[in-house]
Amino acid sequence: MKYGYYPGCSMEKNARAYHTSTLAVTKPLGIDLVEIDDWNCCGATEYIAINKIPAYALVSRNLALAADQNGSTNLVAPCSACYLNLKKVDHYLHEDPGLKEKVDIALDAGGLKYVPGSINVQHLLETLYIDIGLEAIKDKVKKPLYSLRVAPYYGCLVPRPGNMDSFDDPEHPTSMDKILEVLGATVIDYPLKAQCCGGHMTQISEETALELIRRLLKNAEDNGADMIATLCPMCQLNLDAYQDAVNTHFGTKFKMPIVYFTQLMGLAFDVPINELGFGKEIVSAKPALKKITDEAPKPKRTRERGKKAGLPMPIMAEEG
Amino acid sequence: MTGNGKPKLAMYWASSCGGCEISVLNIHENILTVDEVFDIVFFPCIADFKIKDLESYPDGHIDICLFNGAIRNSENEEMAHLLRQKSKVLVAFGSCAYEGCIPALSNLTTKEATFNKVYIDNPSIDNPEGIFPQLVTTVEEGDLTLPNFYHTVKSLDQVVDVDYYVPGCPPEPHQIWAVLQVVVGALTEGLPLPPAGAIIGAGTTALCEECSREKKEKTIKRFYRPYEIQPDPDQCLLEQGIVCLGIATRDGCGALCPSVGIGCRGCYGPPDGIKDQGAKMLSAIASVLDVGDESMEEDELEELIQEAVDTIADPAGTFYRFSMAHSILKRVKNGKGAA
Amino acid sequence: MTDMKKSPENQEKVGVYVCHCGTNIAGTIDVEDVAKWAENNPNVEVSRTYEFMCSSTGQELIENDIKEKGLTRIVVASCSPHMHEKTFREATERAGLNPFFFEMANIREHGSWATNDKNAATIKAKALVNGAVERVVHHTPLEKIPVSINPNTLIVGGGIAGITAALELAEAGHHVYLVEREGTIGGHMAQIDKTFPTLDCSACILTPKMVDVGQNDNISLLTYSEVESVEGYIGNFNITVKKKARCVIEELCTSCGICEEKCPQKVIDEDYGAGLGYRKTIYRAFPQAVPGYPVLDKENCTYFQTGKCKICEKECPTNAIDYEQQDEMINFNVGNIILATGYDLFDAREIPQYGYGKLSNVFSSLEFERMVNASGPTEGHIVLRDGVTHPESVAIVHCVGSRDQNHNEYCSKVCCMYSLKFAHLVHEHMPGAEVYNFYIDMRTPGKGYEEFYNRLLKEGTHFIRGRVAEISNAASHPGEEGKIIVQAENTLLGLQQRTPVDMVILSSGIQARHDAEDVSKLFKMGCDYDGFFNERHPKLAPVSTMTDGIFIAGACQGPKDIPDTVAQGGAAASQVAKLISQGTVMMEPVRASVREDECSGCRVCNTMCPYNAIEFDEEKEVSRVITALCQGCGTCVAACPSSVIDGAHFTNTQIYAELNGILWDVQGEVSAKQEVI
Amino acid sequence: MSDQYEPVIVGFLCNWCSYRAADLAGTARIKYAPNLRPIRVMCSGRVDPQFVLQALRSGADGVLIAGCHPGECHYVNGNIKALRRFSLLKNTMKQWGIEDERVQLLWASASEGTVLAAAVNRMTEEVRALGPLRWGEKVLKDNGAAQAVLQEA
Hints:
The complex is a heterotetramer.
Chain B: E1 8-13, H1 19-25, H2 30-37, E2 39-42, H3 51-56, E3 62-68, E4 71-73, H4 74-86, E5 87-93, H5 95-99, H6 101-104, H7 111-121, E6 136-139, E7 142-145, E8 149-154, E9 164-166, H8 173-189, E10 198-199, H9 256-259, H10 277-287, H11 298-309, H12 315-319
Parallel strand pairs in B: 1-2, 1-3, 3-5, 5-9, 9-10
Antiparallel strand pairs in B: 4-8, 6-7
Chain C: H1 2-6, E1 14-19, H2 23-26, H3 31-38, E2 44-50, H4 56-69, E3 73-78, H5 81-94, E4 102-106, H6 118-136, E5 145-148, E6 153-156, H7 160-171, E7 176-179, H8 202-215, E8 219-222, E9 225-233, E10 236-243, H9 258-262, E11 266-268, E12 278-280, E13 282-283, E14 295-296, H10 302-306, H11 311-315, E15 328-334, E16 336-339, E17 343-345, E18 362-364, H12 365-372, E19 393-400, H13 415-429, E20 434-439, H14 449-459, E21 462-465, E22 468-472, E23 484-490, E24 495-501, E25 503-508, E26 510-512, H15 516-522, E27 550-552, H16 562-582, E28 584-587, E29 592-594, E30 614-617, E31 622-625, H17 635-639, E32 645-647, H18 652-662
Parallel strand pairs in C: 1-2, 1-3, 3-4, 6-7, 6-16, 7-8, 16-27, 18-25, 19-20, 19-25, 20-21
Antiparallel strand pairs in C: 5-28, 9-10, 10-15, 11-12, 13-14, 17-26, 22-23, 23-24, 29-32, 30-31
Helix pairs in contact in C: 3-6, 4-5, 6-18, 7-8, 7-16, 13-14
Chain D: E1 9-14, H1 18-27, E2 36-41, H2 49-57, E3 62-67, H3 78-96, E4 103-107, H4 113-130, H5 135-141
């Protein structure tokens, strides 16, 4: 099926691994990503905060182009920030005619126009989880990622509360968990999976950013993760590139590989590894990937009995 | 005006197909008795009578007039008034006169649409100038006139008072004979006539009474058009999903159609005490549609049921095939409607 | 309609009475105008207005007119028939007319209260009055149908509500069938340690009542049983109960408990023990269980799983064990039914970010109840999941699953109070331990409740006003290491607050039983949006339902604490007792009947009746309505294609008459002959 | 009342849910369009399609049938039968040229006074927008003017 594709600034630069792996896994799933011609920056997280109208106009231009080109009403953005901006602006234009008027002037200057709601903005995760579905993904799995303990990390933009018709629970998202499960990986459930990675705090107040990053890494590690899977170039960059800084700053010894969930999908689909952009990450994923076994690990007992004199844990819903 | 003292019989054919006359002749050798008993004074279908003959009769001259056909145009109405004036007993004979019948189905559309169909859109018509019949056409010899084609088809009792109704499309010969006997009895031996306004030559309850098919509890999942299904010879047709109006139709015909695997069309009209045969039929049929239950989500439920009722093509035409003129609403709302 | 004006009923003498209802009606509707206008109707003999028609003088007005003016039909235009139809029917009857010669026009609820537009309200009132007048002339005399009440009663649910109701009735000398799904009666109350606010021991006040139930000859106790089918109607329900096989012959069992003692197989006790403790596979939920017979749990029993063991059979001194025992169907008749099926606790797993089932030291409220209970798995010691360590700090989270758009929007009423109780118990068991109660609003309505709250304030509980966002083990600084961190916005300080504790208790709210909807269908009565059973009237008939002869008590109607539940149990019992002492009830004669001589036997109506009140006479080939079963909905009347089913008091003639009456101003009636073609 | 045309809507309300909903709307002093003229029936399943037609024939501009929500019917499933009849009736009405908005089916439980009031308001506006139906005079009486000469046809 045909989808408009909005790579945004990072996909072909620092997030090349995300870009290539995305293309590598979407093709076999029958997703035909058609890049929007002449797209521009989404304004990232800052611009909207600084200068609304131009920021909205900037984003609207991409929507207008998407609506204008390649016939698909679906627009996929793999970058969380791009996704949220596109979706948000489409929503605001719809809600606020006054705003639309102003934006229309800008678009009109460029000979463009956009009818709010005519483009359905999706995050890549949404496309895979909702449109394609777990079954279809499962069918493509050739080399299950048995025994690999992966902590899915959603960041704060995709599951943001109040995000109009969000495709997942903002407080406790599980869509990536389920995808990783069908890939055969052991999914780590940890409380911070939807918390902030620091975003551009690394530039503004490094102290703050490092603490946020540390908490994430530690929480994932404490819960036994071999690696963290992300769906956002910003998150990947922060957790990966700043790990060193965190270690020196806090005297910790994190060696937590941060990969894109699409890379793991590629592995499981048995896509040639060189097409998946492994090796581009700073903390190498290789050692972790070695842990993958051919046999599925023994399922842990459905119900953890307390030690001697201990009290039984409650049965978990899906088990009990 | 023969003075032979025989009761005088008239039969007139307004907007109808003529099946009623044939049905009268279908009483076989009894027709001779009719001729014996009655003095036929107006019966354009079988003998040459002119309106002026009729006009020349004194009022109430005719003892019994069998009027068949609906009131489609001004001529039909004029004749109705004239015959009413000349007849002691005026009988709405057959479904058209009684409740509109097939002609009244055109009440489901408009006069305009009907004309376009007949004089323009009809494939067998070549009428490039799009000429419609004219009320008055002037030629050298003078003015030619045509009757006014009404917007709404009416039953006989909607233009004149009617003494009796004989339902059926056409009425069954044995019923006709029964009716005539009653009249003869009344006229010759002074036997009592049925109360005015009575429906004669038919039963009082619904057709199922006469239908020999086996009836069970009705749980119908969908409906079939006759060509879609081979009905079981013994089971109730309705239960098999064939629309059969027998449940809301007066008995008296002997359940002819169901007996040969065709759902009752409803030509004998509703049994006693029913205002609107179509609505009643609709209600009953929808009631026994066994789709959807209270456990379902509201949308799902509505969808399922809509699907099921959609298996009945042209409900209005089906349920009101004969009773349109007597239905509660009588005709389609102006302009809109099935066309 | 013209044809109706011809009808002889036209000679009826109707009295019309338009009520002012103080200003409730007269304030919006020109009642004088309505009354005057009504006189124009040929059927109307007198037309008056009066301040309060429902007052005794108002009623006398009607009675006198009937006597003096020889009225034959009465129309009162006032409030909803659900309010005063009964009142005016009685007045009509007192004056010697058939009570069903009365009709009501609802010009208050549907009229004056529903609009401010005086003109429109008056027009509407005229329409409604006219409709009632046209209708009432076609009314036929009806007699209420007497139904004799079977003095036996079915009570479903052996919790405190059911127990109370059962004892009330039994002690009044009436026989009761008490059906309980579990192996013992007692319900949730038996799981609880102490009761707020008085803190008396739940078991101490409950078990004596349970024993009374067990010993009362008027109570047939059917535990480990479920109602399979319910047929019939008030006064005479036919009930079938499935008595599940407990593999113990009750006649032989002496409840000595040896089988339980010797049984080698131990499993986690999910029901009574809230999953915190263990039980044998042949067991009594708790020592004071009533009845005392154990239940054998086939799913986990070694013998049933492997075919070996049979130890209980060997050990039983009275050979009461019977592995072959089959489920048994019991059938009996009752006159009334009380549903006291109780509630389910909200399952905290539905809020994953609260960590229940993931973080070992997050406990459900029921788990904690069992824990602090002296007879529970820890003999009343408050310990962490490891079974030994005492927590130094405990967080108690209110409103789990309640007042929450994602789950239950309503307030569960009891959580605040039992959370306070928990706080108190922690203080009591472990002086020095810190207790944090996270609440949205503190709701303590009830005798001694607010005082209890004040007491807790003095005991040093930390009260934090804020809904908890998440509960995790993700420490953000060394001080949080190894702790459970409860994150919430303290709305009084306007601060995000992270509170590290050793133990968290989730105070789950009350939910309708998971199968409440099936039950309501089984008993042919309504459930509300949340699944709680619908009462007949929220204020004036809280334990009655829309179905005559079926009553509800306790939390199956909505969240309730023990005092309210007991009160409702008593109330339901007295409702039933009233009916039993009346002996018979008079039922609305709104019933369908088939004019058999005109029925063609098409059988369309046969599948219409939800109560199977329509039978087909194969002999005569006609359908027939069994009056006793008919509830008068009229669905068959609407379905009958030849209109030979009459729906008493809602006949076609009456409805057509009312219809044409209320459309008095828009008829534009033209006889067929005038209609231009 | 303003000079604008005020539609007349007949409401067949079931005794247990929708009639009580209307009672509740009143008791709660919810103000809604006074255009509804209710007729009480025991169950929406009692509503014979003939009633609906007769209401329109007798001058109503619209008809509202209201019952309990599916699954909440006091008579278990009378409302389902109402829904079945309503669905088929609507198909038929289309052929009579009667707009969908004029005959509506509504579920309103005894606690949904607001729902009922809102529905009546909405329907009143919808029917007002369609204009008067007044079958007797508008459709049957001056039905395309009898004397219309054929040229017009």
